[in-house]
Amino acid sequence: MIYAEVMKHIERQINSGELKPGKRLPSIRSLAKRFECSVNTIIKAYSELEKKHIIYSVSKSGYYVVERVPSGYLGSTDAGIIDFLSAGPDKKAMPYRDYQHCINQAIEVYKEEMFTYSEIQGLYSLREELARHLRELQVFTVPDRICVVSGSQQALHLFIALPFPNGKRNICVEQPTHMSMVESIKFQQATAYGIEITSNGLDMERLEHLFKCNDIKFFYTVSRFHNPTGYSYSNMEKRKMVELAQKYDVYIIEDDYLGDLDSDTRQDPMFAYDPSGRVIYTKSFSKVMLPGLRLGLAVIPEPMRNSFLNAKFASDLHSPVLTQGALEIYLKSGMFKAHIERMRSIYRRKAALLQKAYLETLPRDVVYSGSLSGFYSTIRLPSPLKAKTFIEHLKKENVHVADAKSMYLPELEQDSVIRLSVSQVEEERIGIGVQKIAHVMKELLNTAPQRSGRFRPAQPDK
Asked: Which of 95, 332, 351, 428 maximizes the CB count within 10 A of its CB?
């Protein structure tokens, strides 16, 4: 077939360096003349090359060679390191080339808006697309309640300082929680009350006491694949938390930034139990796509819409139009849906391998957490081991993990909890990494003073 010959010809030129990344390919008519074939044959060849992400098209301009990722760029800079520390999408699964196509198209579509001030709330066409996307997650809302933000963390930072319709002042957060939330609380000198998230979830009686007695304006929760424990609440737990919030006039900020990884369609977000505005839903596209994208959303209660937009305006005027436009095209094209299916498969396998390695390798009295999907889990080190010293010994074995101390409020800090993320670790090295963790743990326990007391048997989180 002539179109296959054209494809091979173009690929040879690219591989030899004759056609360099970013270079414009010969026009369709000139190539048709050269191969003595129809224009449709060249169009088909270029279309097939575009599907293989070898070239990309720019409207009214032509076809160009895709920038290739340098060999060795993906993955760890040191092949000997097992990196349970980094917490971003699997670098080998990030949709670089798909998103590049969307960026190119966004430049054409939004070229007039790119260099002018845009809507504080975000492009309306993107918010319409986000409303459609959220419906698939059982979050039913309208574009006017959606605000595009620079990652969900921007929204969280603004909410800490904002007055809430209930007139209350303090906040309640899970313990531990992700470091950026803790830093936002400390930076703004907010009064925060912590509630421990365990392998059995939250103590609902304790949560009710906090809501009743501590002037709580909002409760912040990561409802699925919690950072750092990996825990996901059941529908029953989510419903109970919403009922307590309604009873004591507390708002819930539900951070669902890894919710796209949940393949269980029976699981609902808390928002589904009170879409009136009591539950403020936030999510980000950074963790499941491209960390540098820095785009997220918040579904804002109508009474808070103006104050939130004023705060966002003071923060950054508006989120970048180019990345907003590219995300809109990425969602509309169906690329996001296909990408998420791949990501779900990857993290189900990785999480299952991690839990299996814990069960088979760690000492029986060690408590660990996690789930069968998502990025995160924690290990509570046996007494008298401390995370800081343990991590230094692990580094000598080329295994990197995170100290969870910074993920606690200052008055509730723990110094014997480590966090693992499987996102950057190749599947075949997960078990090896856990074996090294267990080995270092046993070595340090053998040289440590006699322990007092025992931990309960390890039970992986739901």
From this structure: 351
Three-state SS letters, 226-262: CCCCCCCCCHHHHHHHHHHHHHCCCEEEEECCCHHHC
Copy the structure tokens of residue 249. Answer: 């006039």
Domains of the chain by range and CATH? 2-65 (1.10.10.10), 101-333 (3.40.640.10), 338-447 (3.90.1150.10)
Note the pLDDT of residue 450: 58
DSSP 8-state code for residue 54 = S
Spell 202-221 as b/e; 16+ CB within 10 A means b. beeeebbebbeebebbbbbb
Token reading at 90: 């699997």
**Percent helix, strand and coil across the chain, each to the nearest 5:** 45, 15, 40
| CA gap 323, 110 in Å, rounded | 10
Asked if residue 197 has pLDDT above 80, the reply is yes
Q: Residue 367: in which H helix or E strand, if any? A: strand 367-368
* Greatest alpha-carbon span in the chain: 85
368 phi, psi to nearest 5 deg: -135, 165
C-alpha–C-alpha distance, residues 168 and 159, integer Å: 13
